[in-house]
Design brief:
Number of strands of chain A: 7
Oligomer: homodimer
Number of domains of chain A: 3
Distance between the termini of chain A: 78 Å
Largest sheet of chain A: 3 strands, mixed
Strand content of chain A: 5-15%
Shape of chain A: elongated
Order of helices and strands of chain A: EHHHHHHHHHHHEHEEHHEHEEHHHHHHH
Helix content of chain A: 55-70%
Radius of gyration of chain A: 30 Å
CATH architecture of the largest domain in chain A: Orthogonal Bundle
CATH topology of the largest domain in chain A: Tetracycline Repressor, domain 2
Amino acid sequence: MIRMNEINEITEVILTQIENGKYAEARRSIIGMESADIALLFEEIDRQNLLVMFRILPKEIAADVFSYMPNELQQYIIESSTDREIKLILEELFFDDTIDFIEEMPANVVKRILSNADNETRTLINQFLQYPETSAGSLMTIEYVDLEKEMTAAEALEHIRKTGIDKETIDTCYVLDNNRILAGSITIRKLILVPETTRIADIMDENVIYINTHDDREEVAALFKKYDYLVMPVVDSEHRLVGIVTIDHIVDVIELENTEDLQKMAAIAPSEKPYLKTNALTLAKHRIPWLLILMISATFTGNIIKKFQDALQSVMILAAFIPMLMDTGGYSGSQSSTLVIRGLALGEIKLRDFFRVLWKELQIGIIIGVTLSAANFLKLYFFDKTGLMIAFTVCITQFMTIIIAKIIGGTLPIIAKKLGVDPAIMASPLITTIVDAAALIIYFTTATKLLNL
Amino acid sequence: MIRMNEINEITEVILTQIENGKYAEARRSIIGMESADIALLFEEIDRQNLLVMFRILPKEIAADVFSYMPNELQQYIIESSTDREIKLILEELFFDDTIDFIEEMPANVVKRILSNADNETRTLINQFLQYPETSAGSLMTIEYVDLEKEMTAAEALEHIRKTGIDKETIDTCYVLDNNRILAGSITIRKLILVPETTRIADIMDENVIYINTHDDREEVAALFKKYDYLVMPVVDSEHRLVGIVTIDHIVDVIELENTEDLQKMAAIAPSEKPYLKTNALTLAKHRIPWLLILMISATFTGNIIKKFQDALQSVMILAAFIPMLMDTGGYSGSQSSTLVIRGLALGEIKLRDFFRVLWKELQIGIIIGVTLSAANFLKLYFFDKTGLMIAFTVCITQFMTIIIAKIIGGTLPIIAKKLGVDPAIMASPLITTIVDAAALIIYFTTATKLLNL
């Protein structure tokens, strides 16, 4: 029994054992641990000890730990291994984990791996590497259990006993007809519960929802979420079963897609590589484009100020409220766009909800606009003692800016999706520029009227 | 075999059948469908037909469909059902789904449900309702398979055959000692593969990582992601097994936590309720607090402008660049804070990485600062033909603001986490205010020096 907070203590003990060269002791302690924890532990030790420890682990554990390692360590291990060792790792790895790591290796390492794979595996690897990285094909594994329609339950269980040991999941088995075309699915639970002589064809579930190799991984993730699946079958264009996708890879996809949406909403070019493992130049390159666009589009707001320069010059105090108006307007817009973008991503908001969103944001805009500008009026007039007309100018601008920001922030992502543009990209710089410009135009127009400039 | 885009067409056909009163035909078409799709279909039909269809479905399908329905429909069905019908639904529902829906029902509905549950279930429901909503306890279900150490593989399989039919997952079974204390786990795969006379105690995995009822659901989700688990056992304070948590509920938790982080980063009070199902007043209430704080803290930036009013008045053109400097500065900061907050949430960035992040953001700040201010200088001096000194003032301010924004955006979330404050809350309003103030102070100080104001 391991309580999660004990893991750190165990790790400390093992690290000391390894540092003191007590490899056999360390090996005994490690073998009871989860592969994910062993991989984390291996990140902490120096490379020489890493190789020693990796080599003395039982090969099935070593391969599983390998699949949890960061790419640099995987590369290091492959480069430091003999051909025989590479063969052993490849034999033990689940096929989807093999593909995952090969996709991240440099060409010379891939070449070395391919030359050590048997013919069949090499052909499969080459085939899988051709699936686009965001397709169901690149998520799937080939370790599924396939049964025939004509088998009895007893024969099916016997088949599973013979072939099931290396399979990724045997909770759901797939039934194929003689051309390997997907005919149905059956859970192991059902196989155990029915009489031994029952024919698979009579008890299988024929209404299997399947995916194609070229389906987008985001859509596949949506299916898993909708149906609470643990596994889904993947077929090729002739409806032949070619693999399965399991929920653990879907969880990774969900997190990746969430990170990607967040990055886009923060005006960053999306990237799958972790922050600390990306160098400063690459990170900077991801961030510069939207900042440049924002900078250039700000020429527009600058010109509005220039145009009203005389009005501003005669009542200089107006300048002091520009940051406040821009910030509350900008945030009002991004609050709306964030919720709507998220709602679209989760499927809670559909394109046909355009007018419902518009109406809701209009109401919200009025409530927030009244609240904020009333509070602001009290502050300006009674506390800051600005004149009545200036307080009016600021508050009218704030009220109208918030309503405009809410409507633009709420509807622009839906319009983007309708036009086939990623809603997350619509989040901020564009909305900011529109809201800024609207705020300034309303501000100076109101000021000119109310203050007779 | 159902391809996903065929589902809409099938739904259309069934809707027409129901509208024409062809209930038996509709029933036949529905029975082959996935419960999640039937629930979506039921949202489209009017309430009278909904009750008819719900009642004529086989009761195990009806209960499963019920678990996928939105809360309003669940409430309507309970309120329209006889006591006997409620009993049937409760018997067929998985226990975690029962808890999920009871948690969302008004008190009178909960009372009616409890009065129709048998004694044992009622006690369990009351116990589960006491777990905090964000704890592992409220995520778990009681439908697990428990085995005894002394059983043989054959006895265990026989036990599963007898008791396993209603269990949420039988892929992993849990082994208990005589005080119901968790002793180990074993997969059904292993049970099938070993000789029939093997003792469970000899083949079970004793290194089971478990969670406690009071563990936070976000930490539980992190464990599922780290270890690629499909299910985890939950124990009480005496280490007795009280339930299991399955991956489908964890996927929901991951999405909820992601939504919550996004909301906080967009300066919105977090809420689990979908956007379209929340009324405008509630949505407005979630958004007003941070906007008010932002408005009040903008007094600070306003005062800076007031202080430099004379300088601004003598070179009015300076006002035109304020929006651009604030926007590029603000976005520079939120780019950094977004990546660091996400990295912290995914565990890719740790507290001890403070100086690595600081150093990285400093480098990024310099690269972006040089790029943007150089581009800006070319635009201002050659294209807009502002004077040399004004171009210098704007570009120096932009350069320094970006560096400050990057450093504050990158480090503030880590400092927040260190202080036990949610990093996501640190995302924006605070950073915006600091960056705005810094930009304005640098701007006017530089202007005063370079332009001799």
